[in-house]
Every structure is written in structure tokens, then in C-alpha cells.
Records
---
Amino acid sequence: MTDPIHPLPPADAPFLHIVDGRTVTARRGFSGRVVKFLGEPFASAWHHRDLIVAILQRELRERFNGSVAGWVWAIFSPLLSLVTYTVFFSGAVTLPNSSASRSPIDYGLFIFGGLIAFNFFSEMAYRAPSLLHEYAHYIKQTMFPAEMLSVISTLRATAYAAIGLALMLLCQLVFSGSLHWTVVLLPLWFLTFLAFLTGLTWLLSALGAFTRDTAYLMMTLSPVLMFATPVFFSHEALSPNVKLLMYANILTGFIEIIRDLVVFGRLPSAAVCAWTMFLSATTFWIGYWFFRRQQDGIADVI
Amino acid sequence: MVSPMSSDPDISDPDIVVGARHLAKAYRLYDNPQDWLRQGLLGAYKTYYKSFWALKDISFGIRRGESLGIIGRNGCGKSTLLQIVCGITRPTKGELWVRGRVAPVLALGATFDQEATGRENVLIGGAVLGLKRHEVLAKFESIADFAGIGAYMEQPIRLYSTGMRMRLAFAICAHIDADILIVDEALSVGDAAFQRKCVDWIDNFRRTGTLLFVSHSPNEMIRLCTNAMWIDNGRIREIGDSTDIARAYKRAARREKDNMARFSALS
């Protein structure tokens, strides 16, 4: 019997049901739970796509329209570093195998590729621990999907990385007259990197919500990590054992791949790709799992 | 007929939009950050925090189309209860269910991004409350019209007065087709004309939706709600007809003031 004045809400209306601190959801078997867990971050991002777009738009507008020169800064600062590295490091770096070194700009591009990847990482590493504090007003006051902040901030950082990458390709095009066909694989590189950084941000932001020590830890670790990452040198010149050890650092793989694709124009080694993808996927889902586990506490402690 | 404010609501009854059974919420208080780390690592063996029970035992059921006023002194647990109903924080014990879309007028004003313009905040706020982008855009003129803040819509929120912020927040909430509207003191920030506009809108909303209203003013509560709940120290002290509750609350407020005077006289 339905009351005509107060009609029943549609079947897809939101329904929240919590018993003793646990959200009640449909029962699933083991495989159902695995599929749900793996798909959940994507389903959630799709569900909140309008929110992601709205916040991302506003953040990018603030970044690029908030200052007088706006876009000029965004392009000028990576350009300056590209020129600097080309001028000061050409010759100082021995490029692996003689396949490359067609022009002095290759040295600059070699380092710039490493820098794009490392800066992409370090921006998230610095920002993630304070990310939830930055958005505390949303998380504490409204039913904001806090897990999407990691996605939003990684996408925002992607915009800067993409500008750097566009400059890199432009320089390559201007100085050598052509691009390697392998650059069409760059979107895959971006996707994998995005997955890794999103997972990392989930981990660091959840930890950072509880203790400010996370921010200090990352500030201490990040510069050290830069030297354990082949940004200014080529890890291929290292002894085989050390080289293998370098791959424990996921950034090594990312840097090797972007250099292969853009500077050397060759397909990266399958083993390196598989290893990098494996580390990314692991970070992504472990990060998501950890964040969801801590999420109930986060609104209370921030 | 079932009592309108059942203290033992039945989840299988689709008419009960907000139901709570023995709801309790504890916050964990740590003396220092080291204890938080110890709890994370060794929590299975020993407890390193003190529990603060903001809500101790709350049971009620609100049916579709009903309006419930919540009254109580500062710190009695009103805000915690609203946060739980909104899904912002999670109850520690007990059962809770909420059917339908919730529009919290109170919170939305506080969530505005200070640097973003009114327009951007409408887009973000609408999305947070579950509207699709095209729906927000379609309703934008109407929202701007309701808020009545004119050209300020294109200015950053930090330039807004408290009243203007509240106007915008209410305007958004009024446009999301909510099933449950949650209103708190926020309303008292607006000027008389806007308050009347809001009250008229709420009156109209009550014909189809469910209202949760938090106030320190018993009279305002009687005006907007048929039922009321008086929370005291995390428990329901009295629940029932809003006129009766308001009378009891006013009487108690006078008595407690007397008590305080007596204590200060003693010291």
C-alpha cells in the first residue's frame, strides 16, 4: 500500500545500513569478493566522476589562472630545467649503447625524462601526507568520498607531468626533426604511473591523517631517493648486481621505459615492463585496501 | 496504529526512512601520538586509548513525511547524531539505516572552498550531494535565484558574509530533490526575509520529504516539527510531541540555571 502523497523512493535510491560499525552489503562468495575488491576503486571513481571533474577543474583553474602569468609559469619552469640540464650535463652522462647520441639535445632529454618521472612522484610524495588535512572541511562536514581525493590529486599532478612530457616531445621534434613511433605507447606508461601514484597517495594520505610524522618522513626520504633513482645517470652503466638492486625502486623501471620510448625509440624490455606493472598494481590495490580500512577513523581524527 | 516515534523501529518497514536502534558512538582519545602508533601495532593485545562515548543509546524511527526536532544542550551529542545520519562518521555500536538522499544544510555552508567562486562551489556541492553535472547546470539559474546574492556568484567565497554563505548553502540543498533534509542553527544567520523564505520552503518540502531539525529555540522547533527528541548526555531524555518536549525542555533549562546559581553560591 503506497501513500500517494509520500511515494516510495526509487529502487536505486541511496540506502545506508550500518550494524555495529559495519556497513551491511550483499553477501558474496570468495570470488565475488575478489572481483568486487578489484573493481571497487574503478566503480567508485566512475560513480563520483562529476565530483572528480568539478574539483579537478577548479584546482587546475586556480593553478593556471590564479597568477598573472598562469600558463607561462607552467611551461617556462620545465623548459628552463630542460635547457639547464642540456647545457650542463651534455657530455657528463655516458649514454648507454651507441644507438642514441644523435644530437646534444639527447643528453638533455635523457635527464629530462628522468626528471619528469621523479618530479611526478615527488610531488605526490610531498603532498599526500597532508592531503586529507587540506580537504578536512569536506571530509568532516559532508558525505565526501575521501578516497577520491587521491585520484583527484594524482590527476592534477598528471597535468604538470603532461606539460613536461609535451615539451620533451616538442624538443625532440624540433631538434631531430622526427619522433620515434614508440611514443604512441606513452599513454600506457602514464596509466601505469597513475595507478602507482594513486595507490601511494592512498597509503601516505591515510597515514598522514593520523600522524604528521608521515610528512616529515617523506621530506627526509624524497631527496635521498633521488640519488637512488637513475635521474642523472644511467643505471645500465652499473654493475649487474647493483643494477638489479636498482629495480627494487619502481621509479627505475618508469624512467627506463620513458627513455626507451622517447629518447632511444625502442621497445622497453618485457621483464622491466612486467615488473613495473606488477609493482604498480600491487601498490594501487594495497593502497586502496589500506585507505578503506582506515577511512572510518579518518573523519574522527582529522 | 504504530506510535509515530517508535523506539523499536522495524527495518523491513519501507516507510521508516531513518531508523536507529541502540545507536552508540565512541571517539578514541589518545594521550599522545605514540599511543596511536602503539595501538596500531599492538592493539590486539592492549588498549592504548580512552573511549569517549558521545552517543550512548539512541533509538528512534522517523517515517516518511515526518519531521523530527532534536533539542539538547551543547555537547549532548546532537551534532554527532546528525553526522552519523549523513554518513560522515560511523556509529560504534547499534544499528542505523537511512533510506534516500540526505541534504544537510548545516554542513554544506562549512564545506565551501574559500578560494572558489560561488558558481564553482555550487558545482562541487551539487556533486557531493549526488547530483549529476547536467542536473546542476540545469538548475543553476534557479539556485542563483533562490540564493539571491546576485553578482557575488562569480566571486570567491572568502568575500561572502556569513549570511550569504548560508543563503547559497540553503539554495543548493533546496535543489537536490532530497528525501531527508537536515537543518540546524544555520538558519538563524539569515535575515528575516530570507528566514521566512526558507521556512516557507521547508513547509512545502515537508509535504513530501522528511525533516530533521536541530535547534536551541524550542519555539522554532514547535513551528517546524510535529515530533521532537530531547538528547541529554548521549541518551534520549524524552521523545514525543514537539510541544510537550519543548515545554519540558524549557522547564528543565530554567531549573538547571537555578542549579548553577546554587552551586556558584556555594563556592
Note: Chain A touches chain B through 42 residues (CB under 8 Å).
---
Amino acid sequence: MPLDNKKSIDLLCSIIAISNSNLPLADRLNQILDILCGSLIFESVALYTLDAEKERLYLAASRNMDYLAEIKISDSFAEQALIENRHIIFDNIAAGEGLFKDTDSPRPAGKGAVFPVSDGNFSYGLMIANLPAGQSLNDSDLHIIKTISSEVAGTIRNVQLYSNAKKVVEELHLINEVSESANSSNNIDELLQLTLNKLIEWFGVRCGIINITGDNGSSERTIFLSHQSELAQDNVIQHCKECGLDIHTIEEAVLLSLTGLSESAGTCPSEAVIAAPILNGDKRIGAIILFGKRGETPFTKEDLQLLRNLTAQVAPAIENTVLLEKTKVIGREREVMVQELSMLFDLNKAIMTTIDLDRLLHIILTAVTMGDGFGFNRAILFLYNKSTGYIQGMMGVGPDSSEAAGNIWHDIHEKGKTLNDIIEDEELKQPQSQLNELAKGMRVSESEKSILQLTVKEKKAFNISDAWSDPRVNRDLLTKLNCKAFATVPLMASGRVAGIILVDNIYNNRPIDDDDIRLLTIFANQAGTAIENSILYRDIQKAHKEVKAVQNKLIHSEKLAALGEMAAGIAHEIRNPLVSIGGFARRLARHTGENDRESGYVDIICKEVERLENILNDILVFSKEASVESGQQDINSLIEETLQFFWNDFEKCGIEVEQALSPDIGYVKTNRQQLKQVFINLFANAKHAMENGGKLNVKSYPSESEDKIYVHVDITDSGEGIPLDIINNIFNPFFTTKDSGIGLGLAITHKIISSYGGEIKVMNIKDGGATFSIRMPAVNQDDLL
Amino acid sequence: MKKILVVDDEENIRFLYKEELGDEGYEVVLASSGKEALELLEANKPDLITLDIKMPEMDGIETLKKIKEIDKGMPVILCTAYGQYKQDFSSWASDAYVVKSADLKELKETISKILEKTAM
């Protein structure tokens, strides 16, 4: 039914009014469709809007007929209408294939039509209609419909622009909020919770998970937030993983539809899931999963992009916070280290204050037991004797009972006593306690199986937490200690074990941890060195005392010797006058008659002189050098010993020595020094005879004559021999000439050999050189027995 | 009559020896130093010499050496207050060694023993 001008204008006016109203879009569209049907232009009509991908049309509003909810654009008239931006009229709606619902009920008569909803630039959708039966559309009608379409397009565009703008503002607002919250907290857990909460709200999901990858220095952490109590973190993570979405490996932002998860088994609608990695630049620091959106409106691609943007916003904050936490942890560790080091420094300083072993041990044990030291309840120090293998308890420090412990700790606390106060205590020596007595009574031999020997052997600390069931701990030790847990640490000095410190917490039962052992080990290394130094010092002191004693003895004997010398000197001076006095007195005695009174007087003089002479003899004997003692001498060893003196000289002169010493010769009875002098003289003589080189032959052999056994030594040089004019006087002490080079030595040699009943002869050899032959009586077998 | 040369720097000792050895029937010649002894040796031709060791200038050991150079066979008895000379090997070149004493018995016995030996 064609519209007249007035009706057309009215129609357009009403539609413009509706378009510009404040009503929601759907209401406005519905009202416009009402007007179009009411003006009898269309029997029925539907408005479709185009999706963002321009692939599908969705039904926005319809009137008077059941229209398709969704139309695929491709392969239909819709495509033609949209692309060519023109209307298409069908003779009946069946001809508009793909645009109308197939239905079994009788289709309405009348033509079908499709109009693009376009403002000339963009198409926003389609208007599909069914004309009243028998009617068609003239140009005027078509013009009006086209005008209305563009009005509708305008309306849709405005609304879309508005909602897009609004959404952008909201997203910006969200990003801002998330950024703010991300930067508002220095606590990583708080930051993650705030962020996750915002995202859950925004995306309207049931729960969310953020996982931050741990790397060196920080641990992995996972935050889970849910508004529904039946969803548990592990279940959700596991469920996602089973559906192919592992939170630990997400690399790309994804939209997924997973099987629904519900605590109550059974049918459960599928749920939309959106997930994204958290990337700081190119570095993946974690991932987020927003899980469980049910219903008609799943996530859009824009949501995915938004999530990407959000994670990119939050990532630096997370990274910074993780770094900050890491820094804090490191800072705390450093602080602890500084505390430990300063304590160790103090302790080290303290143990350097003394060289006295008892005091040192007490300082070490005090350091181990004091609250501001290591704070162990009891400590016992053992020293290890390497040469005997024994481990000996030296000292124990600690209360004897828990009551005493309480009192002592209270006392220390009250008086504010520090380690330094105690260390500065001058009286610090052996402590008076049962524990100390117990400690000093402990002694473990090398063969005993003991945790103490094990500590020495393996050179490492042992932390025994359950002593009574530990096979390494011997019962004997445990019975004495009576504690459940203890630790042993070797005291090291220059790589060797000097001793052991044993500690326990028998009264407060505080467990001994690895940090305790680590610190105690460091301290034990320093303490070990200090102990070794102290022991060395003690040994040196002892040695020094001994040297002093010997020196005193020496001084004493030197004094005696000096005294003796002086006495001897005086005695000599006195002897001559005494000889005169006594000698003449004796003469007088002989010339006085026996009955004269003078005879008695002279006798007294004689006796008194005799007495004085005896005293002088005693003094002289006392001051005389050690008398010449004789003993059995092995003449071969004596020769070899003496030859050694001459090696250098012989070598210098180019003298070759040949020895032929018979092992079967017996002993001779002489003074060793004198006999040695004999050989010294003879070798010196030989050297003198061969100053331009030669050969020295030394030979020893036994002989027997008239039932007596003799020892012979022949010493032959290859010099020029002894001049005939002196050979007979060579042993005469005063016949020596300097020219001959024969000194007093040979005379002395002769005297010595003769004094022991021996003989010495000399003879020249035909080819030059001389042989000195010694013959001495060997010691009788009877004498040997 | 055997002639004995007594060499000693102490006048009283010389006097004592002269009296005592004279009583024993010896002719006694006295010298107060080593030098004088060597001078007297040629002229007097003694049968035996007693020689003190500790004397100023030339001591007894040196004198002994000189005497032996002149007359190797001359019997010499070293008389001294110093027992330690027994350790000095060069004194062994003398025929005897007597420690001085107020009792001259040892000296007299040694003299007669040596003179007996040389007479043989």
C-alpha cells in the first residue's frame, strides 16, 4: 500500500523521534519495527545486526513472525544485499532462501524483501521483511524504507559508538585500577591477590589462578581465589591440565571452552576459560587462568586482548616485587651473616687474648655456651693426642641441673653480663662443676668405637639427633652425658685434628640445626689453631725451663772447675816452700837425739807438712782432667773413623787410599783417644810425604806367636821414603828437624804404642815410600770373658 | 862418686837436694836455671840431672830438649810440683818423672835405679 506524502512524513518523524530517544537500543528498534508494521508497509519484519567479524547476523528485534536467530552471511542473499548495498525483493519468502525459517506450517503469502541497514559508508545489519499479500513497493515506498534504514543504521552506530566508548573507558579504568593496586603493594602475595580479585570481578569468572615461576633466589608461588567454596585450587589446576591447559606451560593467551567442573558429579555445563602468560618484555614470569564462565556471553577476542594488556601492565610490578622480596631475603641473609661474622670476630679476638691453655679452653667453652655466643646448654672440650691416639676430656662448661641452668641464665640476664665481661674475668681458669669433673674423667682410646674417634677420623662434625638409637654412639658416653641429642665438631689446626668440642641442649631441648653446626665449625677451626699455639707455647715454656736448669748446672760445674783451677794454682805455689820446710824438718829429725825435747817438735813439723802435702795432692787430683781410661778398641773402626778426617786433604793432594782391613782381628786394650792420635799422626805424616799425590795403603791383620795373638796395622805411603840419616832417630822426640817434616808426632806415637805394650817400626820400600808397622797385643779371650 | 846436676830456681830446694843427695853419697852440682844447667853440663859431665819444670825464661821441658840434643843418653829426672805434666807427651822423653815432696825417698830411689841401669 503506497504511502501518501503526509503519512510518509509522519512515519519518518516518529522514527526520527524514536531514534533520538534515550531508550535502550532494543526498545528503540522494537518501537521502530512496530511503526513499520503498523503503517502496513510490512506484514512482518526483523532487524539483524552484523557481528564484528562480519560473518554472521544476529537477530536484534522482530515483529509478527518467527525469524531465524542467526544468519550466516556467506552463500545467501544477505551477502549480496550487504556487499552490493541494495535491497532485494522476492516473489515469496520461500525464494529468499537462507533468510527465513523453513517451517511446516503454511508460509505467509506476500513478497519477501531484504534491505541493508547502512548509513552509506558501513553496513550495520539487515532488515528482512514479509510484505502484505498482494502488495508491492513503489519507488516512493522504497525511498522511505531506505531513509528509515539509514536512520536505524545511525541509531545502531551511535549506540555502538557509545557502548564502545564506555567499554574502553571501563577497560582503561580497570587497567588503571589494576596498575594502581599492582604498584600499591610491596608484598608479592598481596599484589597477586589484589590483581586476581579485580580480574575475577571484571571477567565474571568463578575463580582465578596466578602462578609465578620461581627462579634462583625466589620460590614458585601460586595464588588461587574463588568466590565459590566448592572449587579448590588443586582441583582446578588439575582439571585445566587434563583439558590441555597447564598453568606452568602457558605461552599464548587463549580462549577455551572446557568441560565444566563441579564438586557434585553429573551434568555440568561447559565453562569458558581465558588464560594468558605473564610476560615482562620477552621474559615469561608466570601465567594466569580465569576459569569458569557459564551462560550466554562467553569471552570475546577483545577480552583476550584486554587480558594481554592487563598482564603486560602487571608483569613489571610483579617482577619488581619479586626482585624486592629477593633483595629483602638476601638483605636478611647478609644481616645474619654480618651478625655471625661479628660474633666470630669477637670470639676470635677473645681467644687471642690468652696463651694460657686452661684459660683459653674456658674462654672457648664459654663462647660456645653463652647466650650471645652459640648458646648451647653444655659444652665439653676434648684434646686429641696424635702419638698415643687417646682423646682426653679437658674441660666441661655448663650447669649441672636444669634448676642451676635456670638460675645461671636468670643471673646473667639480670646482671646483663655479656660474653666479653666473662672473658675479661681474670679468674677464668678451671670451672668448678660436676660437668667439668665428668669431662676430665673422659678418656677414649684409639681402639674404642666412639663417636669421638669417628669425629677425629673423618675430620667432620656429627649432629646426633637421636643418640640412644644411633649405632655410632657408644653407650658409655651416653650414660655419662645422659642427653638425647648432641653434636661433635672437630677442632682443626693446620689440617690436623687438635681436639673435639661436644655440645648439647639438655635443658631447653632446642634442636641443633645445620646453621649451628656450620658456625661452630668455623669457630672450631679458629679455636683449634689457638689451642695448638697454646700447647706449643706450653711445650716451649717447658723446654725453656729444662734448658734453664741445665744451664744452671753448667754454671755450677764451671764455677767448681774455676775453683778447682784456683786451688790447684795455690797448691802448686805452696808445694815448693812445703818441700823445703818438710825436707829440712826431716833432716833435723834425723840429727836430733830421740830423747831431746826438740825431737818431738820436729816430728810435729814433719807430720804436719805430710798432712798438708796430702791435702795438696787431694786438691790436685780433684782439679786434674779426667784420667786416661783404657778400654777394648776395635782398631778397624778407629782407622776408618780417622781416615774420614783426611778425605778432603787426600783428595786435594791427589792421594788414593786403599784399605785392606781384616775383619778377623781382635780388640786391643788402649785409650781410644790416644790410639786415634797414633793414626792421626801416621796419616798426617803420610800426607806430608805425598804432597804431590800418591797411594796410601792401609792394612790390618792378625798374627800369632808364642801363644800370643797380635793385631797388626801397616800404613804404607808412596812418597820418597825416609832419609837414611834420620830413619834410626825418627821416634826420638828431640831429634826432629823441621826440614825432614817429621814432628814430635812420631815420638808421641811411639810412646803411646809402647805404653800399651806394642811396637812400632818403620822401613823404606825399594821403589820409594815407607811403611809404618804397628803390632799390638790383642785382648785375651780370657780378658773378654 | 856419681855426680848429679840439680836444676831448680828455688834456692831452698837446691840447698835441700844438695844436703840430702850429698848425705846419700853423691857429688851434687847446682844450677838455678836451664841456661846455667846447659853451661855446667859440658864442664861437669854429670851422671844424672834432676830438672825442675816451672822455671823462668827457659822452662824444664825446653831445657830437657836441649840437654837431649847435646847428650841423647843423659838420664834426666823431671821433678815438679805439677802433676799435670804427666799428660804432656814431650815430658815422656825424660827417663823419669817425680812429683816433688818433702819426703825425698821416691826421688832417691828413682836416682839409684836409673844410675844402676846406666852402669850396666
Note: Residues 3-119 of chain B form a domain with the Rossmann fold fold (CATH 3.40.50.2300).
---
Amino acid sequence: MEAASPTLRHLQAVAEFGQYALRETDLDALLHEACSQVAKGLGVPYAKVLEYRAAEGDFLIRAGVGWRPGVVGSVRAPANRDHAPGLAMLTRQPVVSGDLAADPRFNPTDLFREYAVAALVNAPILLDTGVFGVLEVVTPERRPFSTPEVTFLQNFANLIATVIHRRRSEESLKAALAEREILLRELQHRVKNNLYVVTSLLGLQANRIGDSAARGALEEVQHRVHAIGLAYGLLQNSQDISHFDLGGYLEALCRTLIGDDKEGGVTLALDCEPAQVTLQIGVPLGLIVNELVSNSLKHAFPEGRGTIFLKVRRDADQISLEIADDGKGMARPAGAGGPSRPRSLGLKLVEALALQVQGILTHPPAERGVRHHLIFTVPND
Amino acid sequence: MTDQCDTPKRILIVEDEALVALYTRELLEDAGYEVIGIAPTGEAALSMASVAPPYLALVDIRIPGGMDGIATAGELRARHGTGIVFISGTLDPPTLERTRPLAPHACLQKPVRPEDLLATVTRAVGSPSLAA
């Protein structure tokens, strides 16, 4: 098989590195791969990337191939005109020396003496924001480097610059996203705290009202605001910044309405499948459950004993919610399909909120007590 | 040596939201408890406690000043043997872990319903761990 021409070798090296850069995210691994490709492409035993360190005013060998252990990551090089990498960085141009011993421009470094370096090419790695460093190939044999070879090395340095630029953009995007999440969580925390202030205000006002009906009305509002605040609280503790588990939320809400299960009192029977929802869906559902459970507690159990059932089912993009009790039930007027208690604000709210989530609310017949069923499609977020 | 309060009903509220603190105070006082004060910061809490050591402190975790609620509760417990109920909007696992050494009676997540708060306080005041 015929050996590939230098130009073809160069194109292959660029193509292979491009593919590698698409799947590798670790910068050190990318720089190492770049060194391997340029050494192979130019037929030299040694290559390295020197990273410029502005604070120290020198270069650090960040990656390389062919060098003994202890060179990459440790050995530094001067960043001045007396050395090829420094000159390449300062002039922003490739620097070539086919016979280093006869080149009056440069002083050899200890590393070059150790490896008897006789010829080199350096190409600066230039970013929009300044110089990242220099890509360098060296060989212990004197040899000229052709213009296509120098161009190949500079093209590779430019490719490395593009990869670094992309990587830094990704990092700054990730940092911005993390910052956004912190701000959003802080905002949620403040909303929840303010809702708590509102419930406190309502409580303070209710304490000053002698009329029990008026006080009861304020307390109902207090419960509704509490239901909203609870959703924000769960969201704050949720791994996902925008979703929380509907069953967990409704359970917490019912527990605060019913209190602890105790023998001879009202108990809660839960059957909830996991269903992640956003605030936009969770809050209306919380308010619906708040009304229906409060209603059951108020009317269904004159003896103070019974069970409230809560069921959540998730099927693909549909969620169904069932709230029921085994209380005394409701009298139904002839021809009516729904509950016959006076149309309280609570039930009006339930119907309006069911509409808000574009759900279908029904009140299926029950052997005992009442049953409410709501089914709706979860919108795409 | 702690200067422990032996009046079971004496309670300190550590809360920087004035209206929340005021409402909590009314709830407790209506239920028959004595609220020795409302402290918006940890430093204010320690100052109030040095005058009238509380048996129980309801402590918000996120409060302004040099000490957060957990550090404040630690000092109240060490100096006066005060029982602690944390009430906070932030009860993530790392925060809960930090409260553990103080063996609080409860950690309540805001918003807390009045019934739950009173039930917790009733349980705490009768707690045998502090009654001795």
C-alpha cells in the first residue's frame, strides 16, 4: 500500500482531531491528542502545548508526546524573545528553526539540551481574548520545515484555539445556568416567605373578628394561601427546580387539613403514583384538593369519624385525580348530576380551577360518601 | 453549667419577619404560653435569653446577623438548656443534618399551619427530655 502524501497525512490528522474533539470534553486529553496528531503529521518524535501563565510570566508544558514522565504538567519555559515559544507568542506568528545550534536568536533550555533538540516549529494558539499558548514540535535532527508543514502546524494551533473557545463558552454557559438556578431558588424562597407573611396577616386579622362566620371566611382564605405556599416549599426542596411530586404535595396538604391520623377520627387513605408537575399545574390542583377535602371535613363526618381517599394516577401525558370520602354523602335533587350542597365559593373555585388545568371534573356516584374525579392532560413544558 | 429556665411555658421567638413573629406570638399567648420576646437576630435572642431564660425557642434558621438560627439555637441550648423547635423555609438534607446535634423537638417547614405549630409546642413543652 502506498504511503499517504504529506498533504493527505495533514488532512487526515486534522479530520481525526476534529472527530476526537467532538466527543472528548476533557481539555488535557484534547491537547494530548493534538500533540499526537501533529507529531504524526510532521513525522517528529516530540510535540507539546505550552500554556502561557500571565501571572507567572512563563509557559507551563500543559500537554505533550514523546517526553519522559515528569515533563508534562511540571516543566516551565521562559516567555521571552530569547526562546522560540516566547517569540511566537509575542509576534503572533509561527517561528521556525531548522538548525537550532546555528540560530543566534535562541538560547537552549535545559529540556532542549536533555533531548538534544536540533530543529523546531512553534505556532501560537490565539484566542479572541489573548494568547492561550504555543503548539511546538521539535526533533533531534536538523531539518528544514516546508511552508505547507508550518501552515499545517498553525492550522492545528487555530483548531486548538477553536476547541478551547468552545469549551470556555460551554463552561461560562454552565456557570450562568447554575447562577440562574440559584436566583430562581432564592426567588421561590422569597415568594414562599411572603405567602407565609400573608397567612400570618390573615391570622392576625381573623383573631380580631368577633363574628364567627367572618372569621371562618378569613381562615378559609388563610388555608388557600397556605396551600399555595406549600407548593413553593416543595419546589424549593426538589432536585428539579421546576417540578415536584404531585402525590407528595397533595399528601402534605391533606395532612395539614386533617391532622395526624388517630383512631376514631378522620383518616387519610392515599394511593398516589409518582407524577411530576410544575407550579402551573400543581397549585390549581392543590387548591382543588384543599376545597374538596375541607368540604368533606366540614360536612361528611358529623360523628367526626371517617376516611378521605386520595388517588393519583399517571398514564402517559394524562393525570387523573380522585378525592372521595365515606361520609354521609349528599342529597341529589332530581335530574342533577353533581353535588347539591349550596354552591359555595369553594365549589365554584374547584370548577374554575379544573377549567384552568383544562381538566374534566366529574362526581361519579359512590356507594357511600362523595367522589370527585378530575382528569387532565399535562401540558408540554 | 447552664442557667436553665424552669418555667415550662416561657417561649422565645427567633424570627426576622415581623408579621410572622407577631402572629406566632398571638397564637402562643392565646393558647396560654408566655412569650418572653421576639428576636430578629441571634444576638438579640441571646441578649433576651440572658435576662429571661426561655424553656423553648421557636427558631427560624435563615435570620440576619452574624449567627444563623442553628448557631443561635446551639448557644441557647448550651447556655440555658433551651429546647428548640426550628421553623424554616429551607429544610434540605444538609440543613437538617446541621440541626441534628441539637436534638430539636421538631423541624417545621414554612409555611406552618397554626394548628401544627401549637400541636408541636404542646408536645415540646411536655417533652420528658427537658422536664427533668
Note: Chain A has nine helices and 13 strands.
